[in-house]
Amino acid sequence: MRRPSTPPSSPSGSRKRTRSCATGLVCHRCERNFPLEQAIFACPDCGKGLDVAYDYELAARHFAEVPRAERPLNIWRFEELLPIVGTSAQALVGSYAGYTPLIAADRLGAELGLSNLYLKDDSTSRPSLSYKDRVVSMSVARLLELGKDEIGCVSTGNVGTAVASLAAKAGVDAYVFYPSHLEAMKARACRALGAEVCQVEGNYDEVNRRCRDLAAATGMEFANITLRPFYAEGAKTAAFEIVEQLDWQSPDHIVTPAAGGTLSSRLHKGLGELQLLGLAETSATRIHIAQPSGCNPIASAILAEEAEIHAVTPETAAHSLAIGAPGDGYLVIDAVRKRGGTGGFASDPEIFAGIDLLASTEGLLTEPAGGTTIAVLEKLAAAGRFAPDDTVVAVITGNGLKTLDEHPAKPWPDKVDCELDAMLAALEELGRKPSPVAA
Ligand SMILES: *Cc1c(COP(=O)(O)O)cnc(C)c1O
Ligand SMILES: [Zn+2]
Questions:
Q1: What is the pLDDT of residues 242-268, one digit of tens each?
Q2: Residues within 5 Å of ion ligand 2, judged at the Cβ atom
Q3: What residues form DSSP beta bridges with 86?
Q4: What pTM, to 2 d.p., does this model score?
Q5: Does 138 sit in the ligand 1 pocket, CB within 6 Å?
Q6: Which of 141, 171, 380, 409 lies at a CB distance of 3.0 to 4.6 Å from 8, suitable for a disulfide?
């Protein structure tokens, strides 16, 4: 692909630092520490992923120093708790992403018997209409810190469009690897944004494994493989925003979809950090995860009270949730258990009914991941999991415009003549009762 005429400025030369209080990387299992600067994504001892560690006392002080009114309304609003230290990387990436609306869902709430239901609406996320803008912003910012000028990714759909968009903004080349089953619109959007797209025969888990090999063979950074510890941190910003948007009252429940498990496990981490900083009492917030019946390895482990995830072969129309071997699944099990939440799943027809319910009550068109969340929210409400006045937040992670081709649509009525009589007849045909005035 054509290189941009102006190469990205290398932040390594810049002395200016963000207010990040990140202190290093730490293994999720054995807790071995690594310096933040080290380009490493898995523990050499146990092969597990790495987390980012912070100095929370420093973060609390830094946080108090800058009034909220002076903080940007994007993911960098909480830069103390993000792992990007270079200001020029930050300036280039992520000013669009984050701070999506928290919507009071009164009509959907009435339908479900919930008087304090909210939607965290990442379907309107900028620049690419899904929660992946949060995580990929971190990957691309880190890429710039490393002074690299190309990025790859493996995607169930939305990582690809986020990488295509944010790589273009950062002035780096993007290569997107897609499994064979995915909504065509997502691959087309990547190409329209200037990324190269490679469609691979195989499901996400197979392509993911090969991309790991590819990263090792080429030295190319992958947004959600080699840059994973940084990628994952972006997901916490949704938790920070939800609590701030509720006036620093943490909700009683969060219902969120899970694929690889990054979002749900980092909502837990983000809530814990707000507590550590003394910004909100978040310990009572339960996290419930939603998965499609055709790919529910995390939800079934939670429901069976098992500690191990059993990988599955995905079979679902919710392509963005079709990860059969979820890398962060064990973290999700831990988060849900600690917080007293649960897991639920929904069949494909229930998922599309969930999309329709959200559309008809709140006027929001979401993709199957959002339909899964609404369907599971509905089941949990019916099962009496929530008190009627509990504050419940459902996270709507993606936009339905990208997946409309998959939506089982009503058949189109025939075209009619552009004549009053024909159009009146058509209205009747469409089910409208004749109005008394016309009668
Ligand atoms: C990726 C994705 C998810 C799930 O994210 P994980 O962090 O992998 O669990 C949910 N919804 C949408 C729309 C997504 O693209
Ligand atoms: Zn380790």
A1: 999 999 999 999 999 999 999 999 999
A2: 27, 29-30, 32, 43, 45-46
A3: 17
A4: 0.94
A5: no
A6: 171
